[in-house]
Amino acid sequence: MKKLCLLALLLLGCARSDPWPKQVIAKADPVQKPLATKMKGWSHKGFLITPQAEYSIIARVLLLERFSSGREAELSPEDLSLGWGEMSNSGYLSQLSMQHVERYYQWEIKGEVPDKDTIIQHSANTHFIPANDNVAAILKAVRVHDLIQAHGYLVNVEAPDGWNWSSSLVRSDTGTGACELFWCDKLETLVTPH
């Protein structure tokens, strides 16, 4: 599953009905670029952050999960499962069931139209590391179904004791290690539907 990092449309009480028409609302694929120059890593909360690629995305929030305990939560307090292309289309999404399990996103096909490859290649579970207080505040306000735009870097993280956490660098992988670990330096909610 993509992104055994793939799923929970609406778990806890933050569920709300789907407000979007049955059409693609995030048309473009995420943009991943090689680093323009060799970037040095930087320290953040006692961890070494090493950028691997520049990353920008406009996507629909399919699921979100907030975390308050554990080493990963120190860096990444929110996971957003994001969809673009057909995975931003309410008609397509209505034929899937999705949920978060720990820090993974899982999905199951319920209708006849969705296919595994489209789901895998047009959605991603993303571990957000807010780069500053402004991004952190916006991230806390994001809700399922919002259309967001984000920029930053896919990164690897290392702790002084050797613990590490690495980002996927492709949108077509599944299972453990398939999530994007995203140092987000710019975040905007483009549309918050009612």
Describe the structure in your own words:
The chain is mainly beta and 194 residues long. A 5-stranded mixed β-barrel has the order 3-4-7-10-8. The chain has a single domain (39-191), classed as Beta Barrel (OB fold (Dihydrolipoamide Acetyltransferase, E2P)). It contains 4 helices and 10 strands. The chain has helices spanning 71-75, 90-93, 116-121, 133-141, and strands spanning 31-33, 42-44, 47-66, 78-83, 96-101, 104-109, 123-130, 147-158, 164-166, 180-191.
Kindly list the characteristics that best describe this protein.
mainly beta, OB fold (Dihydrolipoamide Acetyltransferase, E2P), 5-stranded mixed barrel, 10 strands, globular
Order of helices and strands: EEEHEHEEHEHEEE
* Strand portion: 35-45%
Task: Please identify, by name, the CATH architecture.
Answer: Beta Barrel
Unreliable runs? 1-15
The biggest beta sheet is recorded as: 5 strands, mixed, barrel
Instruction: Give the class from helix and strand content and strand pairing.
Output: mainly beta
Percent range of helical residues: 10-25%
Rg on CA atoms, Å: 16 Å
**Basic shape:** globular
- For the record, the CATH class is Mainly Beta
How do the strands line up in the largest sheet? 3-4-7-10-8
Number of strands: 10
Helix segment tally: 4
CATH superfamily: Nucleic acid-binding proteins
Q: Give the total of domains.
A: 1
How would you state the average pLDDT, rounded?
89
N- to C-terminal distance: 31 Å
Question: Which SSEs are present, and which pair or pack?
Answer:
Layout (H helix, E strand, L loop, with lengths): L30 E3 L8 E3 L2 E20 L4 H5 L2 E6 L6 H4 L2 E6 L2 E6 L6 H6 L1 E8 L2 H9 L5 E12 L5 E3 L13 E12 L3
Parallel strand pairs: 7-10
Antiparallel strand pairs: 1-3, 2-3, 3-4, 3-8, 4-7, 5-6, 8-9, 8-10
